[in-house]
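Issue 218. Parser rejects a valid record. Input:
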Amino acid sequence: MTISYVSCSTTASPFSESNLSSQWRLWRNCWKRTSRCCPGCDSNLRNNRHWRRWTGRCGPGIHCQYNNNNNKRSPDLPSTLVIHQEKETIGNNHRQVPFLPLIEELWNQPYQPEKLEKAIYEWWESSGFFLPRNDPSKTPFTISMPPPNITGALHMGHAVFVTLQDILVRYHRMQQFPTLWIPGTDHASIATQMLVERMLQTEQGKTKEEIGREKFLQLAWQWKEEKTKYITQQLRAMGSSCDWSRERFTMDEQLSKAVEEAFIRLYEKGYIYRGYYLVNWSPRLQTAVSDLEVEFVEEDGFLYYFKYCLVNNPNEYIPVATTRPETILGDVAVCVHPQDIRYKNIIGQQVIVPYIGRHIPVIADEAVDPNFGTGALKITPAHDHVDYEIGKRHGLSLINLMNWDATMNENCGCFQGLDRMECRRQLWNWMESHGLALKTEPYRIRVPRSQRSGEVVEPLVSLQWFVKTATLAMPAIKAIQNGDIQMIPSRFEKIYLRWMENIHDWCISRQLWWGHALPVWYLETTADSVDESFVVARSEEEALYKFKLKYPNLEEENIRLRRETDVLDTWFSSGLWPFALLGWPNTETLDYRKFYPNSVMETGYDILFFWVARMIMLGYELTGKPPFHVVYLHGLVRDAKGQKMSKTLGNVLDPLQVMAEYGTDAVRLALATSCHAGQDIPFSLDKVMAQRNFANKLWNIGRFIIQNVRQRYGKDELLAAYQQLVQNPGDWLSSVGLAEKFVLYRLYELIVQVTRQIQAFEMATAATQIVDFVWDDFADWYIEIAKTRWQEKDSLQVATLLIYVWDYCLRLLHPFMPFITEALWQWLYDQCGLHKSNTEALVIAEWPQIDESFCHGMLFGKEMEKELSYFDSFRNIVRTIRKVRADYGVAPTQKVNTVIYVKEVKELVSALKQEYRALKALAKTEDCVVESNDSVFITDNTSSSGNGLEYRDGFIYVLVSPVIMVAVGLRGNIDPKKELERLTKQHNKLQKEIETLSSRLDNPKFLKNAPAKVVEDNKQLLQQYQQQRETVLAQCNIVRILVME
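Output the parser choked on:
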């Protein structure tokens, strides 16, 4: 019996007499019969059927006294399902799988995922299968889900991370590791506030200022409740096997306290400061945004050339070019490169600012690009990041031109009150009328736009809160350099290090209403001796205490505290996510001690700097440990043409709609097989349809195996044979045929490869190999061979192997396709009696394991290698016969006579004769003779096609390998005249294609103007058509002989 736990409470024990209701007492008496212990508090945990009955839950549960996250619960009833137990077999009521009757109802119909998925997921969750096991002998595997923003429906990018993370989680759970995947959502300050404001305007016709902060925040919390419920429903629909008892929101009470504590600790260490700095300002949102939240978009614009007249000689001027004429009003210098000979003589002189008339100096700085514009740069430190840095180096003043709404302020004269774009137009008209404008020319501009609102961001000097990052970045840099944190793919390590080594201070304050309030209080007093001051504190009482210490002579009636109205950057709270989820700053919680650091952080490469870098910096500073050991970065989801998905292009796919139409498993497998680390993901409905077809294939395989096995054998007989195979594979292997040895070898090889690939985060390769094995090796080959074995005396071995391989296939596929595999596995175990092996569900079943000594000693030995080569020969023979049939138009139902000649290898003859029945069935032959004959390999040139084919006495002779030749009877099995007509048409069509391509490749203009890849593709296609033409000509020659006969 395996017991797992979730969060436990730090409040008084629910088992104390004062807390026990009558129901609790009844349950406690039943509880005393069997015992297990919670690792957190040593409270006895038991699985009792009475408990299941009176709680009305599908799974057993208690709530013990350790580490509850919210410290709130009823004293009468347990608030959370906290243990998972594998139930022991009791009589005939050993398994309670509620959807088995539904499978039975659907069994003889095509696969219908919409009728099964919800029932399966509800059973998983209610049974507690997603809770972590308690196994101190194994290192826990932990993932903190990147919290989706509460801004609406999830998109295909969310489906990617859910798929990849759930693959890792389900794999490690099946490997019996204590596995924890913590879900949650993010408050997303800017994005959510925008949407709530929009909703308020649409529904009530009001702004947030009109209803006030308190009512607006109430609306925001209502929005959060609605969206969180919808998002978690979507995550469940995607199959996320999260521990929902630990679900978090970034503004939960406990996480808010963690954010507050982190701010205070960083401030007390000197990492957080308040100051004026040039920030990216969003006029529409009325807040600062970080550099990472600004996208530079290439747009059509103009370069405006104008005169900067010299003070001592107004008839002379320096020509200057700018893309933003409205900022001329705030210029404080003109800057040139110190080595630019055009301007050497005027460095140090004064020039006149147009319209304003202010005198400003000409300075020199190496930051100027002499090749841009005229080589002279106007300097506006208050409105440009490059100018700001130049201004700092030269001690220049800052002149702010704009209000917070991007209208011009009192420093702009008659342009005051104009929008910045209108100011640009009117000022340029003024300069043209006064002879200061030289020209304008079209120019592609990199326009900074807000990721959230899409508006043009304005650089403005503002009083903000910042984090000093240079020191914080040092351990985060060493973590990558020392290998303490591995980044997959590794090429992103260089990108990460380059950014971290040149990191700027982080602006963490936002002028918003929705978000974490800064734990900062300001002192407002009537006392003249006290300037406006602030303290950082955990509460207003603590702030008052600190102010009294700071100003001991200040009378209390003169003190009024005002809390900072700014909120923190969303990425500040998200940066604490991996450890705040587990109880930090309380580092004594069981969750924190057991599950921190996280094992893996799986996320998109597009937020490497937004989020990953900040988690690493804050993790080291606040916990002294890396927040995780591995960073796996996936790419962006694009359409089949590689284009970004957008509403404008009409190529957006809603994962929920696609899952509703094709099934969740098909979507997950399509994503898994397409997703390679760090690479963008080409995605289309064609891929989903292909995997839906694979799901149908799985359903049909399951139906075939169970129907045929149960027709012939009882459950006890099957279970005994299955256990014998599992316990003694060596004895079993020595008594079976080539096909059985082949499929078992390939299965074990697959287990080794897939296990290694998932551990190396090569999920796409792993998924593809499993699909290929199931579809090709198992379904197309072994199952087809198994159909020929039912009449043989050892057919129980065939039935057993079908069950065994199918069981392992479903286990290997489960992380990728959890719903259909669980359904098929439950039905297999129920129908074939395997439930007596005491495994309750596939989601917690053991990952396939192999005995390495057995594999290397017997399965992968030289003798097996030889037998497998014989089976490869068997498959090549079947493929060759099938190809001859297809090439010469033999009807699918028409059986042909076949002779298989083998040269020198007598053991191969014996092996092929053992598979006589399978050869006949798979190649669809009337008779199939296998004989050792060396002389047939010496051609008498009766009719040689010159293309590896010969015709003799009504048979086509084809060389399969140097030691195998197949003769396939054609005479009487085809209509030669009709076939010659078909082949002639095919030849003529190929000839036209060859002539077209040859003409194109002979054209010098094409060779000169076409891209090299297009030319190469045409050459390869021409070669392919020429080879096909030769083959068709050979076939025509042979069919002509048949016509003449």
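Fixed in the parser; the record now loads. The two ends are 76 Å apart (CA to CA).
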